[in-house]
Design brief:
By secondary structure, the protein is α+β, with helices and mostly antiparallel strands. The protein has 2 domains: 2-190, no CATH class; 200-407, Nucleotidyltransferase, domain 5 (2-Layer Sandwich). The protein contains 10 helices and 14 strands. The protein has a 7-stranded antiparallel β-sheet with strand order 2-6-7-1-5-4-3. A hairpin with a 2-residue loop joins strand 3 and strand 4. Helix 1 (13-43) runs parallel beside helix 4 (89-107).
Length: 417
């Protein structure tokens, strides 16, 4: 099992200059290596007897460029550019591994037939992190002991250990990240033991979750969680700062200072959203043994007129966090096809078409009247239980669990950011 803990570090001014220099040198090397690959692809993309001598000049056919050839060229790079000798060798290798991973995602589709975008050249300042692939190892470049992080060729620096490292996990790698408000170290930890999910015959509490914009989520028991919209709350302030930035001379000290201020606003928006997602996920996981959610096409929904609001609530990010939290707590998370969950009646199965403005489900066949989101959540739960082979009543849930008021979740309807 792999987890990542992020801590803030306090480097001195000299160390900040060294790490900034590392990031810039790694960025240049990344761009050079990417240029090598693109040039090789351009020269060898078709057979030599089929190339056009007009639009494609035929020159010397270069050897194949991959991670291993570029890694072997690191020795020559250090001879031509001595500054690269000051960078930990394994960090340079990981930099090339990142490029190789992005390159393969672009050229070769995954199991579902999807491919990533073409790797892009990084502009100045876009390289934000470098990696030490080994920690607390005799041959490692990073050591963490008693709240002090010692990096090879950089030196020791204090770490703000706001929470202790979990017992039984081994430190695998350290990623030094530059953010808008300072420097951080992301520690990857590994434990050989993997929590096994709860057996299905021992599942006692289940819930279906329907996500939305008015209410962030509605459960099959009628519980609701108000939507947190951090970007909508901050967008007016953000727009003013971006307007001021447009009047600054690009590259000036005032421009860079205001640019960092805008980055801090975006950082706060992301942190508020992340904290809300984790709190909600933990509340669900602590109360239920099986959680049913929709397998939504977020990219497709983001192209609709409601795209900004959909990206603000970040359903996909929440479901991803919910799955991660559920794995650690041995809870089942089942994704189901969302098609028809709002239209179908959870009581009798009849089709009841609705528009977005219709917030109540009124079945013409069985006369059931409930909230449309609760009706969808019950359908989601029914499909999930059918998928795993469990039975559920028409009202949703196993046993005699009763709906709880929203106050039981800790929300009183007032949004705070």
């Amino acid at each position: 099992m792999l987890i990542t803990y992020c801590y803030r570090i306090k480097p001195n001014p000299e160390q900040v200059v060294i790490m900034d220099n590392w990031l810039e040198l790694l960025r240049r090397h990344y761009n050079y290596a990417l240029g090598q690959r693109l040039d090789w692809l351009r020269r060898t993309r078709c057979q030599i007897d089929r190339c056009s001598t007009v639009s494609q000049p035929i020159g010397e056919i270069p050897d194949k460029v991959d991670y291993y050839t570029q890694q072997s060229d690191l020795k020559q790079t250090k001879q031509l550019f001595p500054n690269y000798k000051n960078i930990w060798a394994e960090s340079q290798q990981v930099n090339l591994q990142r490029l190789d991973k992005a390159w393969k995602k672009w050229l070769f589709p995954d199991k579902s037939g999807k491919r990533g975008g073409r790797p892009k050249f990084k502009k100045s300042g876009q390289m934000r992190s470098f990696v030490f692939p080994r920690v607390n190892n005799p041959k490692a470049g990073a050591f963490l002991e008693n709240g002090v992080l010692r990096l090879s060729k950089i030196g020791p620096m204090p770490v703000i250990m706001h929470r202790p490292l979990p017992v039984g996990f081994n430190l695998k790698q350290a990623t030094i990240v530059k953010k808008a408000d300072g420097w951080y170290v992301c520690l990857s930890l590994e434990d050989d033991t993997v929590p096994s999910p709860l057996p299905l015959d021992e599942v006692k509490s289940t819930v279906g979750v329907d996500v939305g914009l008015k209410e962030f989520l509605t459960t099959s028991l009628g519980e609701t969680v108000p939507a947190s919209k951090p970007y909508r709350t901050a967008q007016n302030h953000l727009a003013r700062q971006q307007k001021f930035l447009s009047r600054k001379h690009k590259g000036s000290n005032g421009y860079k200072k205001l640019q960092n201020k805008i980055a801090r606003i975006h950082q706060r928006v992301g942190r508020v959203r992340e904290n809300f997602h984790y709190n909600t996920a933990h509340k669900l996981v602590k109360r239920y043994d099986l959680i049913a959610v929709e397998d939504l096409n977020i990219r497709g929904l983001a192209r609709t007129p409601l795209g900004k609001s959909i990206l603000d609530v970040a359903w996909g990010s929440f479901i991803h966090k919910l799955e991660a939290v559920a794995v650690k707590c041995s809870v089942h998370v089942v994704k189901v096809n969302p098609h028809g969950t709002t239209v179908d009646c959870s009581n009798c199965g009849a089709k009841v078409p609705k528009t977005l403005s219709m917030r109540t489900h009124e079945c013409h066949k069985c006369n059931a009247v409930i909230d449309r989101d609760e009706n969808a959540a019950r359908n989601i739960l029914q499909r999930a239980l059918n998928a795993v082979g469990l039975m559920v009543s028409a009202g949703g849930g196993l046993g005699d669990a009763q709906p709880m008021k929203p106050e039981a979740w800790g929300w009183n309807g007032v949004q705070t950011t």
